[in-house]
Amino acid sequence: MAADRHSAQRYLLLSVHHLIEDATSLRLILDELTAHMAGRPERLAPPPAYRDFVGHTLHQLASKDAEAFFRQELGDVTEPTTPFQLVDVHGDGSRVATCAARSRPD
């Protein structure tokens, strides 16, 4: 977090990888940050025990629910798919110097 010397503003940079963050977890993270930054952490639900998460995950692995779901949803995909037809991408993108947004045609 960074403070603006000229005002009461605070800035936060949140950097996450898409494999560990989705819309649901991002909403939870932002809600928790908002509560803490507002000085109201008591508004947050108590965190669940990690052992419960581990137990749930192990149960799902044992029951193969996830495998059945993805086989049903993706079973007919026979070739690789790429976003925006980007098939010739090398590296992790860290060497990109600049990026500019293009306006969409109406």
Task: Provide structural commentary.
The protein is mainly α and 106 residues long. The protein folds into 2 domains: 1-46, no CATH class; 48-77. It is built from 3 helices and 2 strands. It has a two-stranded antiparallel sheet. A hairpin with a 6-residue loop joins strand 1 and strand 2 (10-11). The longest helix is centred in the first third of the chain and has 15 residues, at 23-37. The chain starts with a strand and ends in a 32-residue tail after the last helix. The model has no long low-confidence stretch (mean pLDDT 81).
The geometry reads as flat
Rg estimate, integer Å: 21 Å
Number of DSSP-assigned strands: 2
What sequence of helices (H) and strands (E) makes up the elements? Answer: EEHHH
Question: What structural class is derived from the secondary structure elements?
Answer: mainly alpha
What is the percent of helical residues?
A: 25-40%
Summed up, the domain count is 2
> What percentage of amino acids are in beta strands?
under 5%
Main sheet properties: 2 strands, antiparallel
Quote the distance from N terminus to C terminus: 38 Å
